[in-house]
TrEMBL record:
One MF term in the entry's GO annotations: DNA binding
Keywords assigned by UniProt, alphabetized: DNA-binding, Transcription, Transcription regulation
UniProt xrefs under Gene3D superfamilies: Winged helix-like DNA-binding domain superfamily/Winged helix DNA-binding domain (1.10.10.10)
Residue ranges of domain HTH hxlR-type in the record: 20-112
Lineage: unclassified sequences, metagenomes, ecological metagenomes
CDD domains: HTH_ARSR
Protein name from the UniProt record: Unannotated protein
Native organism: freshwater metagenome
Length: 113
């Protein structure tokens, strides 16, 4: 895909030409560091330096690219102080991922058992 903007429902995304909302969401969330940045923002706004400090191994260029994606996708906004925070729909994603987290924990126990 040559379009460098964030995946959006209704547009072709990696692995799918349908533009289905789920496929766009999976493309966005499957990008390196996207879920980690959303996870770090779950407790409140953070600046870019704080995000870099919390994400060992994340380069500043990837940080800003991913933040652009997440802002373009309306999951994150930048406040007047330059900090990044989750939007309402970004916070809802955490709730939506809770069943997947529960499944992953059961799966982990099964593998350890």
């Amino acid at each position: 895909m040559t379009d460098r903007s964030a995946p959006r429902p209704g547009r072709a995304v990696r692995g799918s030409t349908t533009g289905r909302p789920l496929m766009a969401a999976m493309d966005l969330l499957g990008r390196r560091w996207a879920l980690r940045l959303l996870w770090e923002l779950r407790s409140g706004p953070l600046g870019a330096r704080a995000l870099l400090a919390r994400c060992d191994g994340l380069s500043s260029s990837v940080l800003y690219e991913r933040l652009r994606d997440l802002v373009d996708a309306a999951l994150v906004v930048q406040d007047d102080d330059g900090r990044y925070e989750l939007t309402d729909v970004g916070r809802e994603l955490g709730t939506a991922l809770q069943p997947l987290d529960a499944w992953a924990r059961r799966w982990s126990r099964e593998l350890d058992g």
